[in-house]
Amino acid sequence: MPHVAWTELEAAARRDAQSRIQDQFAADPDRLSRLTLDAAGLHLDLSKQSWSQAGFEAALSLTRACDVEGRRAALFAGEAVNLTEGRAVLHPALRAPDGASFQALGEPVSAEVEAVRAEMKTYAEALRCGNETGATGRRFRTVLHIGIGGSDLGPRLIWDALRPLDPDIDLRFVANIDPRDMAEALAGLDPE
């Protein structure tokens, strides 16, 4: 069934590619109110995309055919959605507030997640104030973060947003296996 929904979405996309957004608004005066919504503290305006109502419906049909809602529910229920490793993913548990009762494969994990977050906070505070030092007793001035995909993008986003708050520590990122990326990140660092 998903292949039929893909085909319908591709056909709608080809049709919509020939249309201008201004024409979409002219043909559908309620477009703005129909294609905007507020969710999770965000205001989403989909009306400025060049899809027609038929294209929008085709996209929704594809999500239903692929059971996106069911897969999302499985993720938040702690089911094994990582098919290559046969395990649950812990993104929801890591983002849950303290006191949550998240389970992974039926086992409670929230208390363990909270404990690790507390350890991370303690360690980060020790780095910032100089209580955690290198082997020579000198303060850390640079942190080298190595991660690919979400292990890079999330920390990098947070660092970019919060960098002005802590100028004493430089954070560098290596986000792939290219030796040049590592060489650039290490350039000018004092190994002591």
Molecular structure report:
The protein has 192 residues and is mostly helical. It has three domains: 4-66, no CATH class; 77-132, no CATH class; 134-191, Rossmann fold (3-Layer(aba) Sandwich). Helix content is 49%, strand content 11%. It has helices spanning 2-17, 21-27, 31-34, 53-65, 68-76, 91-95, 110-129, 150-162, 179-186, and strands at 36-39, 42-45, 103-104, 107-108, 142-146, 170-174. The strands form three sheets. It has a two-stranded antiparallel ribbon. A two-stranded antiparallel ribbon has the order 3-4. The radius of gyration is 23 Å and the shape is extended. The termini are far apart. The model has no long low-confidence stretch (mean pLDDT 91).
The succession of helices and strands, N to C, reads HHHEEHHHEEHEHEH
Question: Based on helices, strands and strand pairing, what is the structural class?
Answer: mainly alpha
Strand order of the largest sheet: 1-2
What is the subunit arrangement here? single chain
Instruction: Report the uncertain regions.
Output: none
Mean pLDDT: 91
Largest sheet: 2 strands, antiparallel
**Number of distinct helices:** 9
User: In whole angstroms, how far apart are the ends?
Assistant: 59 Å
Total strands: the figure is 6
Strand content: 5-15%
Shape: extended
Number of domains: 3
Rg, alpha carbons: 23 Å
Helix content: 40-55%
